[in-house]
Task: structure prediction
Amino acid sequence: MYKFKRAFIVGFASVILFMVSGCGGAKIELSFEKESYEVTVGKELELMPTVKNADEKDYALKFSSEDEDIATYVDGVVKGVGAGQVKVRVELEDNEKIFAEAIIKVVEAKKFTVTFDTAGGSEIDPVEVVEGEKLTRPSDPTKAGHEFAGWFKDAATTEAFDFDTPITAAITLYAKWAIKVYTVAFETNGGSAIDPVEVAEGEKLTRPSDPTKAGHEFAGWFKDAAMTEAFDFDTPITAAITLYAKWEIIVYTVAFESNGGSAIDPVSVNHGAKVEEPETPIREGFEFTGWFIDEDLTDPFDFENAVASDLTLYAGWEKKSYTVSFNTAGASGIDSQTVVHGEKATEPDEPTKAGYSFVGWFKDPARTEEFDFNAEITADTVLFAKWELVEVSARLVTNGGFIDELTLTFAPKDSATPYEQELGFFNDGYNATNAEKSIFLYEGDHPIFGGDGEGVEPAWWGYKIALTQIAPNAFIVENHIGNEKDVPQGVYDYILVGLWRPNLYPGFSFVMGLAVGDVLVIEGVDFAGEGGPVEATIKKYGPTAVDNYFAFTIAPETELPEPTKRGFTFVGWYDNPAFSGEPVAKISKDTSATAFYAKWEEADRLTVTFDTGDETVVIHPVFRFPGDTLKRPIDPVREGFEFVGWFSDADGAVPFDFDSEIDADITLYAKWEETAAEE
Result:
């Protein structure tokens, strides 16, 4: 037994045996059983030589054909290509002298004609079929009034032809036909049933008895489900059809007697349908109570009931009553009144309101149209008390600002319960070790916040909250600075810092959870003292949980004072915390608000730059706002020099006054004196 694989060689193909040793010296003989073989065009013939190999040596065979337009010889298989005769050869791959040859005769395939007798049906052309092949079934013929029943081998159409039978001779196939009978069905569309009938092709349909349907009249039979084309019973039947019964529904009239209300037109309603409830009629001074079947209004009509006859419905009514209520705008309450349609409201006693004089009752919230108590009430009514300001105490909510001439009222409300958090360090102690157990509070211009945007600032890796001081130990959360690399040193009053550590201290979550507007009261810190560890507590309140305002008496023509807030520009006072509407600068007699809210915009910052004269000695810039003074920084240190002080000019002629107010960007220059070298 041998194994081989194909190798492609120009002009012929070869089979290569997997070889362990060569075939040099081996005696191998090749031969065919016959001198010639016959094959049909398009067919294949397996033709492997007989091999004598006494030494059982490995070998490889090459196969070839003298004319591949007649036959090919590949891998021991001959395939007929065109009619003719050709010699094929097989030889040892490494010894062409050992070979075998045979003559191949390629002949055309034999074909037979199949004829179709359609017996009066549409014609089908004869076809030729190669001997031994199967006949391809043709398309079915057609014949008016008949249905095709198949192909048969005999003219009497008793033996059906099997298309899986190989063709071995010329034959004629005969079509068989069956006369058509059609079913006519009747769709009565909800009427009484009518059985279907069968009609031979070309015959006429006998009209059945008319069906019946409750609430309807029969209108005839139609050819389509949409009932647009009537069926003619004189028409011959040529296909299975369905006829559709058309019905005309009985229509009733429903009339509406509105009994003094607005007119309602009558409507037509099909038998068995529901009448749609009409729009509610209108009768001035009355409330509609529904539709009734009887004139005495004792039997309400149910619009879910199907209509089965003409009918009249009657409107029911009740006289309306209205509520007159009184909006006193903060004064003592006045009970509302119930008034029957067309009657008058009773004028109540005048309300009172401290600091105001009562003007009267008005119909609109803007108090522009005065109400007349002699007018008839025809709808629910709200009356609005109008007041003129005499003198009253108001609250000025500055949102972190100050008013020099007034005293701040600041205290948590009695009902407020703060969230308490430990504070561990003030102005010092910021490091990773301390961060595992506490949070830190620093003044906003502390050097720890100096930086150049590249991470130089020592506190860049902490989460920072900006605070505005509103009282000696009270602060408003102004902003989330977060993990910014540089906090603008000197912009904010104080900075609260928390540092994330794997051993997470609860204070970090406290810092992250603060919201802008929260109020912090810090107890246990000496804000004028030295920095370091503290045993302090932060009490957090929501914005509305504390009283935080300046009391101020207002009267007509009173001008509201202008507050100040470091780092911000005052925009104006508003009578609502959302700052909607126009700002209020002067009080009028029509002013009703007793609380006013300061709106702010961030002010432009002033930059103070420190020039030490030595690029290795760095003091980062700080920020100030117009009117601020500058906190003296820690004296810089320069090797070989003694620091003299800060000067306004580069020549060191004008010392800088740290008590002076800053109103522009400035640069301060360090002045040095060289120290004598030690001998």
